């Protein structure tokens, strides 16, 4: 909308105000999404989801390393994935908190 409205900026006094308001909103929303790392969190979530789905299908089809339908091995592998993901998430959350503290100084 900003490029469209800028063509009409000289027609009415409120259009430049609307353009600046929209620009400010875009910057604020972009900053909040970048600060919250929503994109990175989503990518991490989807990658672990797909990894767990892959393990499920390996187990159900009896494919290596689950040739003998070893349920204990499935549990060990899934728990290691989840543990690794929890560690990665805590590192990401900690780095985000440190960046917020640094910005507020």
Keywords:
105 residues; mainly alpha; 82% helix
Write a short abstract of this structure:
This protein is mainly alpha-helical. It is 82% helix and 0% strand. The longest helix is centred in the last third of the chain and has 34 residues, at 71-104.
What does this structure look like?
The chain is mostly helical and 105 residues long. It has 2 domains: 1-36; 37-105. The protein is built from 4 helices and no strands. It has helices spanning 2-6, 14-36, 38-61, 71-104. The radius of gyration is 24 Å and the shape is elongated. The model has no long low-confidence stretch (mean pLDDT 86).
Topology record:
Blueprint: H1 2-6, H2 14-36, H3 38-61, H4 71-104
Helix pairs in contact: 3-4
């Amino acid at each position: 909308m900003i490029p469209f409205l800028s063509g009409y900026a000289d027609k009415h006094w409120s259009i430049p105000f609307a353009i600046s308001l929209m620009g400010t909103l875009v910057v604020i929303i972009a900053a909040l999404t970048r600060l919250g790392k929503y994109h990175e969190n989503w990518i991490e979530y989807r990658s672990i989801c797909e990894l767990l789905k892959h393990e499920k299908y390996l187990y159900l089809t009896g494919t290596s390393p689950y040739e003998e339908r070893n349920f204990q091995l499935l549990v060990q592998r899934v728990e290691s994935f989840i543990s690794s993901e929890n560690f990665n998430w805590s590192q990401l959350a900690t780095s985000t908190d440190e960046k917020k503290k640094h910005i507020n100084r």
